[in-house]
Amino acid sequence: MPLVLATTTPGEPEIFASVQGEGPSAGAPCTFIRLSRCNLACVWCDTAYTWHFDGDDRTHRDDKTFERKANQITLEIADVAARIEALGQSRLIITGGEPLLQAGPLAGLLELLPDMTVEVETNGTTTAPARLDIRVDQYNVSPKLAHSGNAAELALIPERLRSYSGDARAFFKFVVATPEDVAEVAELVRAHALPKKRVFLMPEGTQSAVLREREQWLTQCCLDHGFRMTDRLHIHLFGDTRGT
């Protein structure tokens, strides 16, 4: 069964080596694979080319859609595995879009890569089936707050949040733009018993200056609530670009 990937340029899948830019593994050398399609639509999404295709009327702040053929490619899992192995890294970050929409093919891919340490980046609206779950070392769960523009009944599913809360492999990364967003995080942590030591606050933004400004007040928020803070290292290194 094939995988549907995002592209860096038309016809070139977004599979690349870099360092992890966010969360508990920030700075770790790794290979990234970015899959296409998402079941949510964040108004500030910085990878809208994975889902906001021509004809999609969901809202995005850039008011821009992307031609599907140029931004999406389908590859057999053996081809994807060979490309990953060729990059020579031992850690694999599976991101999107929403990767768990392609759980079946992903499980097949990871069976071809048994020695990889695997991180899955997910919006937390679904869980991996057993065949995939057994291959995952870390979940980077990013539940979407009200400012994302997604309805809470779609983005914040209580049974999913509680399931990840009880999984020691799951870390929670909340994208925040204002102090009001932090208050929403604090309520979600309370309501769903999310372990504070696995909760990260990340500033929303695709420019270094914006990230730095927001991190100034986020520092005090982390001190007040006992949360951790994560930067977006790749933005400082490479800017808001694909394949980095």
Automatic annotation (TrEMBL):
Alphabetical keyword list: 4Fe-4S, Iron, Iron-sulfur, Lyase, Magnesium, Metal-binding, Queuosine biosynthesis, S-adenosyl-L-methionine
Sequence positions that bind S-adenosyl-L-methionine: W44, C45, D46, G97, S142, P143, K144
Keyword match RNA-binding: no
Domain Radical SAM core: 25-240
Free-text remark on how the cofactor is bound: Binds 1 [4Fe-4S] cluster. The cluster is coordinated with 3 cysteines and an exchangeable S-adenosyl-L-methionine.
Protein residues bound to [4Fe-4S] cluster: C38, C42, C45
Enzyme Commission no: 4.3.99.3
Single annotated GO MF: S-adenosyl-L-methionine binding
Residues binding substrate, per UniProt: V19, Q20, G21, R34, T95
Quaternary structure annotation from Swiss-Prot or TrEMBL: Homodimer.
Protein name: 7-carboxy-7-deazaguanine synthase
Organism (species): Pontixanthobacter gangjinensis
Top-level taxonomy: Bacteria, Pseudomonadati, Pseudomonadota, Alphaproteobacteria, Sphingomonadales
